[in-house]
Each structure stands twice: as structure tokens, then as C-alpha cells.
């Protein structure tokens, strides 16, 4: 999408009309130029266009120019615009080329509080979240998360802690049981090997005895 004409403050209708994107009919934003017809479009507009179309909006064979025409860059750079956060209180008038950078750092940007989901000025959000009743916080004693407004009482906290302890014990017991099982298997194995060995020895000594008889 382009930059809305309403936001341009040094509006000269005669120049402005050369700076329109013919897809969104707003002032070009991140322009790219078709080298065949020399028309320019916002980068996002032309990308969206080619998701459904094969040819340039002017029906020509689209070939993107390596650079947009110098005159176009020059005209665009003369524009000045209001910040997108004007309605939140930002009164800055910003040159076209500095607009993007300003808006990335504008203090009048709104952000949602993670708790109550209200939109709040970015600069106030941290302060707000320190007190927001709806924000989930973690109890360092029992590791439970709860909304600040639902603070749990000491009994519930203790109950949680006991539950955590029990879970820990159960884990330990299971691991001990597994250890025991493994050791029993090992012992059984050794037992089995021993029996086989004794069997073999028996057999060998019987054979030896047999040979003595024959002699
Ligand atoms: Zn556009
Ligand atoms: Zn074209
Ligand atoms: Zn601003
Ligand atoms: Zn909040
Ligand atoms: Zn707790």
C-alpha cells in the first residue's frame, strides 16, 4: 500500500499526480519501476499484483528496472508527511525519506498490553504492565502463574508447593523403581550365565571321565 495523500502536507497537486502508484492510487511507497512502460508501483502493490497476474498493470512485459528514475526519487524526497500516529498525539512532520525510520521509533505507537489486551502508548506500556490487574505473573514460591488480580492466598500457595513436592517425590520413586528393575535384570543375567557355565563344566568333566574309562 502507498502513502495516503491526506498525510502529505506540502501538497502540490500538479507534482503529486506523477507520484501515484497506479495500483493503489496513493503516493508511491518503496517504489519499483517497470522498465518496459516506465510506470512505477509500490513494491508491495506490484508483488500482490503478480500473485494473480502475469503481465504489468499496463499489460506490457514487466521487467523491473535496476533503479527507479532519478526524477521520481527527487520528487518523492521533497514530500513531507504526517506521522501515522497523528491520532495518538504525534505532531511530527517528517520528510518522506525519514518517515519509515521515524515510525519505527515513534513514541506514539500503540502496543497491546499482554494482560488486559488494551492498546496503550508504547512508551507507557512497561509502566502499565507493572500494575495491570490482568497480567499473568509467576509466583516464585509455588511456580504457579496467576493474574495479578487473582493473587492466591498463603494456603493455596502452600498447597501448590506441597503438590510440587509430591510430584518430585513421585518422580524420584519412579526413578528408584526403574533402577531396581534394571539391577534385578542384571542379577538374573549373571545367574543365567553362571548356570550355563556350570552346565558346560559338568559336561566337560563327564567327558573327561568317559575318556579315562576307555583307556
Ligand atoms: Zn501502491
Ligand atoms: Zn509495464
Ligand atoms: Zn510519530
Ligand atoms: Zn493491561
Ligand atoms: Zn504461590
From TrEMBL:
<dbReference type="Pfam" id="PF13923">
    <property type="entry name" value="zf-C3HC4_2"/>
</dbReference>
<keyword id="KW-0479">Metal-binding</keyword>
<protein>
    <recommendedName>
        <fullName>RING-type domain-containing protein</fullName>
    </recommendedName>
</protein>
<feature type="coiled-coil region">
    <location>
        <begin position="159"/>
        <end position="193"/>
    </location>
</feature>
<dbReference type="InterPro" id="IPR001841">
    <property type="entry name" value="Znf_RING"/>
</dbReference>
<dbReference type="InterPro" id="IPR017907">
    <property type="entry name" value="Znf_RING_CS"/>
</dbReference>
<keyword id="KW-0175">Coiled coil</keyword>
<keyword id="KW-0863">Zinc-finger</keyword>
<keyword id="KW-0862">Zinc</keyword>
<dbReference type="InterPro" id="IPR013083">
    <property type="entry name" value="Znf_RING/FYVE/PHD"/>
</dbReference>
<feature type="domain" description="RING-type">
    <location>
        <begin position="21"/>
        <end position="57"/>
    </location>
</feature>
<dbReference type="GO" id="GO:0008270">
    <property type="term" value="F:zinc ion binding"/>
</dbReference>
Amino acid at each position: 500500500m502507498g502513502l495516503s495523500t491526506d498525510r502529505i502536507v506540502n501538497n502540490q497537486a500538479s507534482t503529486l499526480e506523477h507520484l501515484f502508484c497506479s495500483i493503489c492510487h496513493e503516493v508511491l511507497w518503496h517504489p519499483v519501476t517497470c522498465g518496459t512502460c516506465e510506470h512505477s508501483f509500490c513494491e508491495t502493490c506490484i508483488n500482490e499484483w503478480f500473485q494473480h497476474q502475469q503481465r504489468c498493470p499496463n499489460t506490457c512485459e514487466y521487467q523491473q528496472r535496476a533503479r527507479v528514475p532519478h526524477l521520481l526519487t527527487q520528487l518523492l524526497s521533497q514530500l513531507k508527511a504526517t506521522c501515522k500516529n497523528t491520532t495518538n498525539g504525534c505532531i511530527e512532520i517528517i520528510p518522506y525519506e525519514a518517515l519509515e525510520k521515524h515510525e519505527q521509533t515513534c513514541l506514539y505507537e500503540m502496543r497491546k498490553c499482554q494482560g488486559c489486551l488494551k492498546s496503550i502508548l508504547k512508551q507507557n506500556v512497561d509502566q502499565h504492565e507493572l500494575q495491570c490487574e490482568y497480567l499473568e505473573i509467576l509466583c516464585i514460591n509455588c511456580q504457579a502463574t496467576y493474574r495479578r488480580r487473582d493473587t492466591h492466598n498463603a494456603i493455596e500457595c502452600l498447597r501448590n508447593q506441597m503438590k510440587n513436592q509430591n510430584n518430585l517425590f513421585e518422580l524420584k520413586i519412579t526413578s528408584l523403581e526403574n533402577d531396581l528393575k534394571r539391577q534385578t535384570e542384571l542379577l538374573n543375567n549373571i545367574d543365567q550365565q553362571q548356570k550355563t557355565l556350570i552346565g558346560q563344566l559338568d559336561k566337560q568333566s563327564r567327558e573327561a571321565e568317559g575318556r579315562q574309562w576307555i583307556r
